[in-house]
Design a protein that fits this description.
six-stranded mixed beta sheet, alpha/beta, single chain, 29 strands, 32 helices, binds iron/sulfur cluster, about 775 residues, globular, about 35% helix, Rossmann fold, 4 domains
């Protein structure tokens, strides 16, 4: 069996491997010198914000305030390669569809606005004003604005996102499917219910004070790499890091900090996790419920022995509601149920609870491993419940920290990208801009796809992103896009969504985050983003644009808006020429942005006040609210174990050479896979049970009760340290297996972390 693609895992995350990988990416971009120079301005007060993830920037950062994946993101954007009209002339759209995501984007930066010509099945160059005019006329001819879907990727700046939502609301709809619908939607919903605000309550500084940090369903080594620096510093000063993750992730085991010369010179690394537990897929709620059960038992023992309380009774009494109901729910949850659903033993869970009990200040972080399940909202409520027990919210060194994926996904929601907008915000918009805002709630991602499939939606506008690859049920989504009257993609590079053209289709090239955005007078414009710690900071590109024919996101939105709704309500061109004016409007319509322009120009920007961080609870009870939901009856993993065998719970995730749907390379060195993406990670004993071998080729077949056959073909089995019955592989390749109908309760987030599948091919038992 050919297993050449399976190799050694890196000894530690970061280290010389990271520097080597950075060098490779900069060389691949063809701009090694200027690329390296560009990196020196990444995440610097007078530089640009890394277009990667939403991890925060330290108050007193270093000159090298970036990670390996930040270099990949910048090198990928600042590449010298160009996808010019000649590139599109060479191949038909049908031929381009045969390229992989990696091969397609490797062609480089878009240089000209392009319009799809159905007759030749090619994209041809078009003038900006012609593109705007045609897009505007098609949108105005739709019989209702609710027939158009306006998608936002989390890379859009606050200024672009605010102008976009303003245009779309002047146009007359709240159809705002956005990428957070597929990532942290459950976090926002659960936290608003529990603490009254849908954002994390911690600052970076809190990681310097925490005694214990619980990292649940998150792989920072690949998805938020600079977080490893904060975890390493915490581990070195004696804080305990407890990990709950089905997969053994190298970054959470050992990290060699490239910024620590001594560690690098001696080829050393620092252990991160002091306790690493591997629950089965969907088992996090049971694991956290188990820890709470152990904490309450410790409290009872302390009370019985007349010892100091384990619980923070002052916090529970003064700040919490429904504790007793929660206590009853925990007592009603037996250890057998907890062990069966979590896949962890009582002893393991109690060890984790002991870390919690013996720590004064605790932070809990989480990501997609928690948010992409049917019961994610309940799981995040359980995490909040657990943290309330010892008052670990609203004090230094403690709090809740959902770590966002895209650099400004949190900011976009803050400035109005929301299909269910609050009335206060709509009232403020209506009062400030004097137009009748649409009040009917709009479409999130799944509702937008549904509308495109049933024909009630006829147009799709994408502000960044790769909709066809980021969404579930890829075959259906591709079909949905191609049956529209209009598809428009604002993008930096060609991607597969562009190859699903509607009747009229446009690719509109925009500036990257690293590029100068000059206005009419030639002044460089500043944009702003909000990270996972609610820090709003400025970003100004430093490089010459990839082409003189590309425009900023803001200018493109202004052009489409002008052509669609005119400028009686808003002078779009004026705002596009001076982003300070956009920020004045944000200040006038959204709380906590006072003196926005002045505060933005301070180094590191400013913090958006988080009431829960000050133990002010904007919940219906005016208190931090316990929930008392029972554990889910059954997780996909538990269901897969039943029956005649051969079924698995699948999770999709990223490789280390990937960021969201952008594939920078084919290696995943932290997991020991090289040059291959068609892989399924599986426990060696499951492999044996199937009489299969490492490297064996199989098809993965989705199991869902809607009669649609979903098959991901030709994947290779890789033995890996993962719980038996759970398997994993990369998206977007495996998104074809995620049923549209399988979505989180309340969150409507696709359940990409627990999909029922089986194998087809040789030895499928
Ligand atoms: S941690 Fe995230 S934001 Fe920071 S440099 Fe890396 S990818 Fe960019």
């Amino acid at each position: 069996m050919d297993t050449k693609f399976i190799g050694k895992k890196s000894a530690a995350a970061g280290g010389w491997g990271a520097l080597k990988s950075c060098g490779k990416q900069l060389l691949q971009s063809g701009m090694p010198i200027s690329g390296a120079r560009t990196m020196l301005k990444a995440n610097q007060p007078d530089g640009f914000d890394c277009p990667g993830c939403a991890w925060g920037d330290p108050e007193h950062g270093s000159s090298f305030e970036f990670c390996e994946n930040g270099v990949k993101a910048v090198a990928w954007e600042a590449t010298e390669k160009r996808a010019t009209p000649a590139f599109f002339a060479e191949k038909t759209v049908s031929e381009l569809r045969r390229l992989t995501d990696y091969e397609l984007e490797l062609n480089g930066r878009l240089t000209h606005p392009m319009r799809y010509d159905a007759a030749s099945d090619r994209y041809l160059p078009v003038a900006w004003e012609d593109a705007f005019a045609e897009i505007g006329s098609i949108l105005t001819r739709l019989d209702t604005p609710n027939r158009a879907e306006f998608y936002t990727s989390g890379r859009a700046s606050n200024e672009a996102a605010f102008l976009y939502q303003l245009f779309v609301r002047v146009y007359g709809t709240n159809n705002f499917p956005d990428c957070s619908n597929m990532c942290h939607e459950a976090s926002g919903i659960a936290m608003r219910q529990a603490i009254g605000v849908g954002k994390g309550t911690v600052l970076l500084e809190d990681f310097e004070e925490a005694d214990a940090i619980f990292v649940i369903g998150q792989n920072p080594g690949t998805n938020h790499p600079r977080m490893l620096g904060d975890l390493r510093r915490a581990a070195i000063r004696g804080a305990r890091v407890v990990v709950f993750n089905p997969i053994r992730e190298r970054g959470l085991e050992r990290f060699s900090d490239p910024q620590d010369k001594m560690e690098m010179l001696r080829g050393g690394s620092t252990d991160i996790a002091s306790l690493y537990l591997q629950p089965q897929l969907g088992g996090d709620m049971a694991a956290v419920r188990g820890m709470a059960k152990a904490v309450l038992a410790a409290e009872d023992r302390a009370v019985a022995a007349g010892l100091p309380a384990v619980l923070d009774h002052a916090f529970l009494t003064e700040h919490c509601a429904d504790f007793q109901a929660y206590r009853a729910a925990v007592e009603a949850t037996g250890w057998a149920e907890i062990e069966d659903q979590s896949g962890l033993s009582r002893q393991e869970i109690e060890r984790a609870a002991d870390v919690y009990i013996t720590a004064e200040r605790v932070i809990c972080t989480w990501a997609m491993g928690v948010t992409q399940h049917l019961h994610s909202v309940a799981t995040i409520r359980e995490i909040a419940n657990f943290m309330f027990l010892r008052g670990n919210i609203g004090k230094p060194g403690a709090g809740l920290c959902p770590v966002r994926g895209h650099s400004n996904v949190q900011g976009d929601r803050t400035v109005g990208i929301n299909e269910k907008p609050e009335d206060d915000f709509l009232d403020a918009l209506e009062k400030h801009f004097r137009f009748a805002v649409p009040r009917e709630h709009g479409h999130n991602v799944l509702a937008a796809i549904g509308a495109m499939l049933d024909g009630s939606a006829e147009a799709f506008i994408g502000l960044g992103g790769n909709f066809a690859r980021a969404t579930p049920d890829s075959a259906l989504v591709e079909m949905a896009l191609r049956q529209l009257k209009l598809t428009v993609h604002i993008a930096t590079k060609p991607n597969h969504s562009h190859l699903m053209p509607g009747e009229a289709a446009f690719i509109l090239p925009c500036l990257g985050r690293t590029e100068m955005d000059l206005n009419e007078a030639g002044n460089s414009q500043l944009v702003s983003v909000e990270d996972s710690m609610s820090m709003v900071h400025g970003s100004a590109g430093i490089n010459r644009p990839a082409s003189p024919h590309i425009l900023s996101e803001v200018a493109i939105i202004a052009g489409i808006a002008e052509a669609t709704v005119g400028s009686t309500v808003v002078d779009w061109a004026e705002l596009a020429d001076d982003y300070d004016l956009i920020r004045d409007h944000i200040e006038a319509t959204i709380p906590d942005f006072e003196n926005y322009n002045a505060r933005l120009r301070k180094p590191r920007g400013f913090h958006l006040r988080n009431a829960a961080r000050h133990r002010e609870w904007q919940t219906p009870t005016g208190k931090a609210s316990f929930s008392s939901e029972a554990l889910p009856d059954e997780t996909v993993h538990q269901r897969a174990r039943k029956g005649e065998g051969g079924r698995f719970a699948l999770q999709t995730f990223r490789s280390h050479d990937q960021y969201n749907t952008t594939v920078y390379g084919l290696d995943d060195r932290y997991r020991g896979v090289y040059g291959e993406r068609q892989v399924i990670f599986i426990h060696p004993d499951d492999l044996k049970a199937m009489n299969a071998e490492a490297g064996e080729r199989i098809d993965v077949v989705g199991e869902h009760d809607d009669g649609i056959e979903r098959v991901a073909e030709d994947f290779r089995l890789v033995p890996y340290d993962i719980p038996r019955g759970s398997i994993a592989g990369y998206y977007p390749e495996l998104n074809v297996l995620v049923p549209l109908a399988s979505a989180g309760k309340e969150s409507d987030t696709p359940t990409s972390k627990s999909i029922m599948v089986s194998f087809r091919g040789r030895n499928a038992a």
